[in-house]
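Technical annex B. To support the medicinal chemistry partners, we prepared a structural model of the target in complex with geranylgeranyl diphosphate, based solely on the information shown next.
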Amino acid sequence: MSTRSTPLRTADHGGRTDLSKIVGLIEKELDAVNRTINDRLRSEIALINQLGRYIVHSGGKRLRPVTVLLSARACEYRGDAHIQLATIVEFIHTATLLHDDVVDDSDMRRGKATANEVWGNQASVLVGDFLYSRSFEMMVEVGSMRVMEIMAKTTNRIAEGEVMQLINCHSPDTTEAQYLETVRCKTAKLFESAAQLGAVISGQSSAVETALADYGLHLGTAFQLIDDVLDFSADVDELGKNIGDDLAEGKPTLPIINALNRGTPSQKKLLQKAIEKGGLEHIDDVMEAIESTGSLAYTARLAGEEAERAQQALAIMPSSPFKEGLQELAVFAVERSF
Ligand code: GRG
């Protein structure tokens, strides 16, 4: 489906944004990140190696490390700390996925059984802890107090976002504002920091640092809004996880919140019950309510506006292929189908 309705700036290729073209800009560096991931995943404990390898090689898109690398190159960074930082960001992302799949009791991610499905909840949480603490070890090696400060705050915010989501779960009274705040914490914050880090290690002005942080925050918000659209509309094979998972867990995401705000009294009743109870018993009626209220299009429109803001934040940056890559990444966030 085409999810974008605002006039984002795109490259000449017209159709769907090609992630491999964006990645091609920093291919060698991303290879170095993947080597560092393998290297730093190693432990003397066999289970950590097994489970860690399983999750990091299960086909993730590596969007957050790509954001760090593009941002650093857009800032004309010349060193190699961006490789270490991109690895750190991917380790933190992976730790959150391991924990999230336990919290949500998910059995499928990236088209494969989740680690908790294969090794159980305890192993998944503990290997998540390993990745999380390894990332802080690696941050100390970078030797920048500013980086430590940003990442410590970031992980704290992610955890807060996840707790907010827990509080809103099964609550049909969740407002759009509460939902968006949760999205900014649980997902967008890590993109914000990923983009900001490129400026920090390049010693850029605070104006550039703020601009890139802003870019990342809007990019991450657009990305999560589309994630929530795809939960109701994607092809299960392409998305690699079960459709309707959010509703099944009683999560009031924006497509549901908007349908609740705009639906008929009987649709409201149906949606309230669906969120309170969770499960997929009335999925067809719920889908009908979401569609008749235009709630997927509404959510996608908000995502398009966020991606537009992300692109606007880059105005301060000098022209370069890497700046264009960041712009294209914002387009990918809304046009993606996986
Ligand atoms: C360990 C710091 C820490 C916190 C734990 C459980 C938790 C608190 C946070 C979960 C946050 C979370 C999973 C948010 C959802 C973000 C999201 C949409 C992930 C999917 O991202 P993709 O599509 O993943 O980029 P791939 O598979 O491509 O890597």
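Notes passed to the chemistry partners:
Confidence is low (pLDDT under 50) at residues 1-7, 11-15.
DSSP finds 17 helices and two strands in the chain.
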